[in-house]
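Quick entry between incubations.
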Amino acid sequence: MTPGQRRWIFLAAVAGLAAFYLWGLAGLPGFGNYPGPYGDIINRIAVAQTKATGVVSAVNFEYRGFDTVGEEFILFVAATAMAVVLRHLRNEREQDSRDATEDWSVPPPSDSVRLVALIFTGPVVVMGWFLASHAQTSPSGGFQGGVILATAFFLIYLSGQYLLFRRISPADITEAFEAVGAGGFAAIGVAAVIMGLPYLKNFLPLGTTPGAVSSSGTIALISFFVGVELAAAFILIVGELVEQTLLVRQGDQ
Amino acid sequence: MGSARAAYLPHVAAVVTPYTIPAGIMDVLQVTLLVLVAAGATAVVLIREPVRQVVMLSAYGVLLAALFMAFQAPDVTLSELTVGAVALPMLLLLALAKVKRREPAKQREPVKGREK
Amino acid sequence: MHIFPFVVVVYILAVGLYGIVTSRHLVHQIMCLIVVQSSTYVLLLGVGYKTGAVAPYFYDIPVHTPAVDPVVQALALTDVVVEAAVTALLLAFAIQAQKRFGTLDPQELVQLKG
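Done. Structure below.
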């Protein structure tokens, strides 16, 4: 089958798919007329029930906490599988990285990049930590805060300090942090089971002021663990991909 | 939307809070951002050179984040901004660097992804 | 305006699928997959939107203000981050494919045997 034929078959198929899709979407109550009861019910009762003013994080970590455990473990498995897939690669490439570097020159990073990375690393760490620990208050949470925390480590790599990046995030310690994050989330649920409650039920005291940092029970704690796991997973992922660069640089010097 | 549906749709009126943008301006904003997102998606697909496509993907992530903000979803905006505009392009560029170094020297012209 | 966001969703899906089908470079294909995934985020948020409503955060507004649906926002939020990690895994597979078969062209990879 030639590429041209494949393209025509694809266009016919996607026209059919789009027709069905639009026919189905036309049965929805239009954009802006949200009818369903669940959103309204949760908006009304979430603040009183969980003392958390960030309703999206309350949904993520309390009302649908079991789904979030599943998604976090998808991420954990993806990072681990990537380490497995690429580690075999690294062992074999050690010997012929020499001849690959003959016509490859690594330019040093520019001064403006290094200055920006130097200025922003500290504030980014603070921002990531702030976001990961305030899930119940405002638009924040473990997922966003963890990625921003990992971005601080990427800034160190981008400023040219590759060896420093490897030294502050060695693979085994990063994997340990990732395991602590993922396991901590599951362990909070198991702790609820040990107390005789359903899995992942909110068993810590809820506090009195809605939206304070110490209120909302396990939501803040779960968000902290999710932040740790996300940051470690992304650092691990990037660490796997940059491993080749070190071999090239040592071949140059 | 038949008339039978209207029987159980709750009455949704435009509520005036201190934070409400007038409904007309919000509509214009959303339509503009939707058109820009559609154009951005077309551009991402039609650019075949991978490194340029990564830059366009980063801009597309910022456009998506603005669209999510217009849909009153600040949490999703934060996620999309950090992941789609920062972390994903970084991963893609690192993977592209790793892949390009492995090509033999005679194939090292710019890789075009367009079909003949 | 009643159906325009959903038309845009279908368009982004179709464009992304076209990119996947007619691609000649594995990393280009992965980026088109990212575009397809982004169409689902727009769909989720479009379904939950209520005209004239605010974001569902009640830190400084009274609790009974009409707000948009938080459940679909929670879905889209974890969606965005988790699919980035899965994309990273796909990139690792692309790197391995180039190492083993020497090519990044998906239409040549199909024909390699053994």
